[in-house]
Design goal:
Helix content is 49%, strand content 0%. The protein is built from eight helices and no strands. The longest helix is centred in the N-terminal third of the chain and has 14 residues, at 29-42.
């Protein structure tokens, strides 16, 4: 047996306000849809019938009728603070961003999962932070130091040539080929 239809009571001022919202050409469509839902419920239609007429799901009808019963016309406005608030602390955020290039012991780099375990956050959080800051620890470029015992003196000679080349000189650099 179906539940009896619970009517939506509204006074004439509320009805006039909702009807003017529906007729006004500059009313946002979401407000028009909410007003149509409330007016249809006030006519005594079932939530299923209202949902079919307006083109929404029944739970949407339930939501807006409940908000109207609780808050009146003020319930038609969007609730403040919509969306999920960030639950990541600044310390965790800093850890995720700074430790991305410092691999854990025994590994060559952090993965999203290992960083998530280290920071105590979700994999999605780490991925979103890395993506927003263009961090790609899997794409690292390394610099290999030479085993040459005189490498440092040669290094500074080459740097000195680049920074202060002799007049009319052409400075070329060749890397050693590793075999």
């Amino acid at each position: 047996m179906a539940r009896p239809v619970r009517g939506l009571e509204m006074d004439s001022d509320q009805r006039k306000e909702l009807e003017s919202l529906v007729r006004a050409p500059t009313t946002p469509q979401r407000s028009v849809q909410r007003a149509r839902i409330l007016l249809a419920c006030a006519e005594g239609l079932s939530q299923q019938e209202v949902a079919r007429r307006v083109g929404v799901r029944r739970r949407i009808v339930t939501k807006w009728c409940g908000r109207f019963r609780k808050l009146g016309l003020a319930g038609l406005a969007d609730a403040g603070g919509r969306g999920c608030k960030s639950s990541v602390s600044e310390e965790s955020r800093a850890l995720i961003l700074t430790q991305a290039t410092r691999p854990p012991k025994g590994r060559t780099r952090h993965s999203v999962r290992s960083m998530a375990r280290t920071a105590g956050v979700s994999v999605g959080t780490v991925h979103a932070l890395w993506q927003a800051n263009d961090i790609k620890p899997h794409l690292t470029r390394t610099f290999k130091l030479s085993n040459d015992p005189q490498f440092e003196t040669k290094f500074w000679d080459v740097i000195g040539l680049y920074l202060n080349p002799p007049d009319k000189a052409l400075v070329l650099c060749c890397d050693e080929l590793l075999r």
